[in-house]
Amino acid sequence: MNEIQTSNIQPQNEMTNHNLPKVFDLRERLMRFSINVLSICRFLPQIHEGDVIRRQLARSGTAIGANFEEADGALTKKDFINKVAIARKEAKETIYWLKLAKNTFSLNDYIDLQINETDEVIRILSTILKKSGYKFRM
Q: Model-level pTM?
């Protein structure tokens, strides 16, 4: 895939259309986010640098929802907080990989939509952690 092809990443389905209303069910929102991240991964160029970013982005972008699902099944408050904190850390890592992909391969505004969505997810997870009594380290 060349740079011209990678600069034309578009949403793969109607779930990513920014004209649709926001999803307020966090589990559904994280599932849709994972699907969108995997969609981006498919468009990264088939070169070493693209492979590195693709693996890391796919891993961190899908781990957010997976860790939130684990939090939902937590047996203790401490375990719940730990899993939500891990989901938040994965979201912060995902922003890094999205920005790196965008800047390395000159990707279009669709990446910006996913960066903004990741930022919103971080804010939501942060609020959940604060309400659970989590103490953020500086």
A: 0.82
